[in-house]
Amino acid sequence: MFKVTFLPEGKEIEVEGGTTLMEAAQSAGVHINNLCGGKGVCGRCRVKVANGRIRADKHSISLLSKEEILEGYVLACQTKADSDLEVLIPAESRLEEGQILMECSVDYSAPERIALHRLPSDPMCLYEPLTQKVYLELKKPSPEDNASDMDRITRELRKKTQYRDFEISLRCLQGLALKLRNNDWTATATLARHGDLRRILQIEPGDTTEKNYGLAVDVGTTTVVAQLIHLKSGNVLGVAGSHNLQARFGEDVISRMIYACGKEGGLHPLHQAIIENINHLIKSLSTEKGVNPLDITAVVASGNTTMSHMLLSLIPCSIRVDPYVPTANTYPQVRARELGIDIHPEGIVELVPGVASYVGGDIVAGIIACGMADRPEVRALIDVGTNGEIAVGNNEWMVCCSASAGPAFEGGGIKHGMRATRGAIEKLVISDGQVQYKSIGKGKVKGICGSGLIDVLYELARNYLIDGEGKFHFSPQDKRFVEKDGEIQFTLAPADETETGHEIVITQPDISHLIRSKGAVYAAIKSLMDYVGLKFEAIETFFVAGGFGSYLDIPKAVGIGLLPDIERARIQFVGNSSLMGARMCLLSTHTMERAAQIAKGTTNIELTNYQQFMDEYVAAMFLPHTDRRLFPSVNY
Amino acid sequence: MFKVTFLPEGKEIEVEGGTTLMEAAQSAGVHINNLCGGKGVCGRCRVKVANGRIRADKHSISLLSKEEILEGYVLACQTKADSDLEVLIPAESRLEEGQILMECSVDYSAPERIALHRLPSDPMCLYEPLTQKVYLELKKPSPEDNASDMDRITRELRKKTQYRDFEISLRCLQGLALKLRNNDWTATATLARHGDLRRILQIEPGDTTEKNYGLAVDVGTTTVVAQLIHLKSGNVLGVAGSHNLQARFGEDVISRMIYACGKEGGLHPLHQAIIENINHLIKSLSTEKGVNPLDITAVVASGNTTMSHMLLSLIPCSIRVDPYVPTANTYPQVRARELGIDIHPEGIVELVPGVASYVGGDIVAGIIACGMADRPEVRALIDVGTNGEIAVGNNEWMVCCSASAGPAFEGGGIKHGMRATRGAIEKLVISDGQVQYKSIGKGKVKGICGSGLIDVLYELARNYLIDGEGKFHFSPQDKRFVEKDGEIQFTLAPADETETGHEIVITQPDISHLIRSKGAVYAAIKSLMDYVGLKFEAIETFFVAGGFGSYLDIPKAVGIGLLPDIERARIQFVGNSSLMGARMCLLSTHTMERAAQIAKGTTNIELTNYQQFMDEYVAAMFLPHTDRRLFPSVNY
Which residue of A has its CA nearest to B264? Predict the structure, then answer.
């Protein structure tokens, strides 16, 4: 057994010789970035061996620059311990937990800007949280009225609510007699929706109706964000986010599925990681807002199908193999204690239902948030993430599809790509030949996030620094371009402005990668429109969601051919529509029921079965597109 | 600490000095009969101190004969340990567990004799067990049909059943993907009723529809009886019964409530005792019939309100105090694991709902079993036990009441009274001055049970050995009469025919006790009839239920004034109608729903609030009745 110490944290773990540094880090609960699930092909798990002997081979140093190799860098997933070790995880391989800048990295307030033209008669406007507390003043029993305690409660609940039928948990019934008699026959019942019944989750003495809270959670592949909500008023008390702790098992959904399905029990740590995420958010929100976690009685979570499966510990393995069949698209109502979520143990946990393996509850939540299924006008939602999901429809029909766009716009697979957290370049202009950028937070920059990458691609094209295929063209004397490790790189930030002390650059492969991603998204949009026989002109609004941070320059997104070239006013950036949809479901039983109808009624088109998609994809791998007539407003 | 050894079993327990012998026995899990809950007034807990020193006072020897005192007998509840002890529990103070003669003591087959004139269209005839197994051959997923596993199951269930909506437990969903893929997409789903939904309790590979069992349980104060039922066919595979193990905490309902409510945690051992009873019956039935207990997926239990509360561990304390309010009259569907019942952990446990604190689910089950609520004819059910419960009604209305009759007809409070188990005199005639009796089982007699006591009372009256008030009249030379301990006793069985070696007798106080009991039952019947304004003639059938064993001589029951004097053909002994009703509920969801309607729609008359009852009671304390016109056919 060897002791491996991970720096700068100093966490230690004992491992057997031959264990990879990545496995050691996972066991120690230390995060090392990793995009390929440990296959040695993404190069994100660079670590520096500060002390000790390792077993390394050519795979251990692939994707590394000469400088890095000389400094002692290796890929953690390809390098094995051969003595006690000290391993330094450099800034770019590290997640900085707790430093996520909520106001920038995860856009939770933006969806509020959507003006939903709803009629007050629309049942989705009915305010009726999934759990409600009802205060009861019961008549004391008398010889003339000796109904049972439970009948007494039911009778009063029928008077004070519109519900007829109630069901009570055994646990709650067991202490009831004393609770009522010791508290002068006043009590507060917590009700939860359950089909046509209302479940009584708890009976508390006295009036506790003010103390009822809910949690809306967006379980993203990258980030988990939660809002704490006061259920009586519907007010958002606070919001918190953290990186998805599953990242230590693989950066994208596919690599996490591979981990979960690779060996017996592989699912468990992935499940636990999300629960840990959610519990961490509950703890920090409830502490901050002075809320007793036991007063949280409902959680609504939305996530893609794989995240939903992992949250509930459902086997996700068939999701990634043809014909892409999940265990379920709609999920049972679960008690918090069944999952170990640290709220009231009888509190309910519901997931927004999804449509298919690659169009999950996050998209349905987005459809809800954008009000797409409420009105006759045809509207579209585009969610750009690891997968680009597109939904198009109105109050009568809805179709959707997803394209494997890759995580490029979340910073994945890009040399200096990163999530929209502190230190990320989120906005960039090349003007008079000079790069000017704006980064998230104060201090030196660390990399570039999705919105910045869109800007980079657009600005390079606009300044003719790349051609339509994305190839750099430059004069040898142009100092912004450097050749390094056989790659041409364009400098975005000089070494003295960065946290790592190295330039932040964009490389030729990065650009190809981004063009493939944007092409996949556009091709998916185009294919879906063709499938339903509609022109872009027929779409009233394009809603765009995604982990871009709070900022997305829509004209530039159109300029690179990611989004279709239609009037600016018809494209609306909605940020984290998944979270907003989850909150809407939490606050209205009708909306939650509507979500189930939408999930069920939406037709999913498998693009892999749709011949035209490949043609569209090939045609879209050009800036802005091989068919320039599709982008009349783009003038570079 | 002293060691107390209970003989003849030899069970030992360490107790502190000052612990009563009854408490020591309870801790050791040894049963000593006990009717008053340890108050020293029933005299049923006679034990013989064979060795050691005790702390005894006048209470320790009250109710004992001189002979008994000289032999070392004491009352276990009034006597404390003061050294190591050996305590002999004599035959009459002992339960003989496992010796209950099912075919005699608990009448489970008799109700089958009831001819229910039902229309096939009657929904209560619909065979639809509370849990059902449905075999599914699922279509394998393909690119054209990639619905989720769960949707695939739901789709097929909709085809194969009449149900629309299904809900699945998380546990069941978690393993689903592998189960289906490893078993060629064949599976059996276990469905349970739940409101308008059907709950999927488990998914098993292959076809297991044959292996689905249910348990109907009558939780009586005295006896717990269970039937094991094959749910696909409805066949009764077997039946088993045992004494209610709660008896160690008090023989009747009231003393057990006192125990449960007397101290913190008092309810727990009473709850555990019933669970132990049920688990014991499950074990013995499943072993005998070669059934895997995990294939039992549903339990329906019926019992009085106190038993129902104790089974579910609901606080029963307000049941016994004015205005007699239970925690609930209808009970939630519970999972077996919540109660620790040893069947499939996700299996359901339901209780037949009751009407009020003293008219419980056993009576509603009886109403179901007798088909009283199905037809326009007015019929009545009389359940003679510790309480006499009466229900009268038809398909439009139902009223009921209960009278505290005392446990005399269950053998309680009678010197040689006993339950209808081995050794009990169940039938008796005095002919030509000679007593002839028939007892249960082979071997010597031990006492006399309910049906025997009715016969004794009738035969004594018919032979003018007692007068209308129950007073013995006899000539001093009549050897059948003996004076002992200042009491006149009539010998039923001579010493050489009994297991104890003492005569089995009936005493003057026994007779008074029986007359009070029969008077209470009759007065309740009469009061209820008056309350609804009906004459006995208006009742098509009187159903009589109770723990009399398999035998009840109806003319004699009429002859003592227990039952009203109507044509013999209109009185029907139905035995354990509670068990039959529980089974009917188990086998038909519609019947279970009907039970809830009946429980809700039945009006309970509190006799304590009904002035006329006391008058009726006083008038009925005579043989057969002070108003002989009510009993024209009785000719002694």
Answer: A178
